[in-house]
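Students often ask why inverse folding is considered easier than folding. One informal answer: many sequences map to the same fold, so there is more than one right answer. In these notes we will look at a single instance of the problem. The structure comes first.
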């Protein structure tokens, strides 16, 4: 995000390394991306886009004994009929490649869709 003339402008870097202005879903909770540093957190040169659809919540992540990274997050929490909980499994190798390269890796598997069972935000709810 950058501020230009008192207005917040959201930017992202596309797959070719070019900075672009975000045109849809202009909030800070979009384009969830995994970053990897190889210099103790000074820079994060390696990245992989995990989800580019709608508003995403803050993720929770854990590392398993074999090095796989499990990430759970929800999407559309405040949108009627859109609340969905996702799980992704990635590795450092995937992030280094910028795409899924390990056979057991996956992105955005649906764990639960509360809206399908009457949960999530409903008409008349005030947030």
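Output (designed amino acids):
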């Amino acid at each position: 995000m950058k501020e230009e003339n008192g207005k917040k402008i959201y930017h992202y870097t596309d797959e070719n390394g070019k900075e672009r202005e975000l045109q849809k879903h202009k909030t800070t909770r979009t384009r969830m991306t995994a970053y990897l540093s190889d210099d103790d957190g000074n820079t994060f040169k390696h990245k992989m886009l995990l989800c580019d659809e709608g508003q995403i919540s803050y993720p929770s992540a854990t590392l398993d004994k074999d090095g796989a990274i499990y990430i759970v997050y929800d999407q559309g929490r405040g949108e009627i009929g859109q609340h969905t909980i996702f799980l992704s499994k990635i590795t450092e190798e995937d992030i280094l490649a910028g795409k899924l390269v390990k056979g057991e890796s996956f992105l955005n598997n649906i764990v639960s869709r509360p809206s399908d069972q009457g949960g999530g935000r409903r008409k008349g709810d005030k947030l």
